[in-house]
Predict the 3D structure of the following.
Amino acid sequence: MIETKTYSAMLYMLADQIDSEEGCVIESAETVREAAERLDTQTVAINVLMNALHVALPFVEDHEASDAYKPGAVSKALKTIRAAITSAEGGAACN
């Protein structure tokens, strides 16, 4: 899988090429630049959220057997956190 920064770099290069070629009709250079900027911004947000999930996971795991929460609530939260991490990282489920 190609890293997101590689895709955004490709979009920036495409925008520069669109600017330099007369008669290019695929997209405006500004639209391509906006797409690259949005991709960069979303990547930063995803990284921040992934870090938060990784930090929270052990705390939630510590409360899995707690009687302080409704039965199954912590297990459900763990399943959701692990699924989000797995999906975002594109790997095998973490236990």
The chain has a mean pLDDT of 82. The chain has one domain: 4-89. Residues 18 and 25 are 8 Å apart (CA to CA). The helical segments are 4-20, 29-62, 73-89.
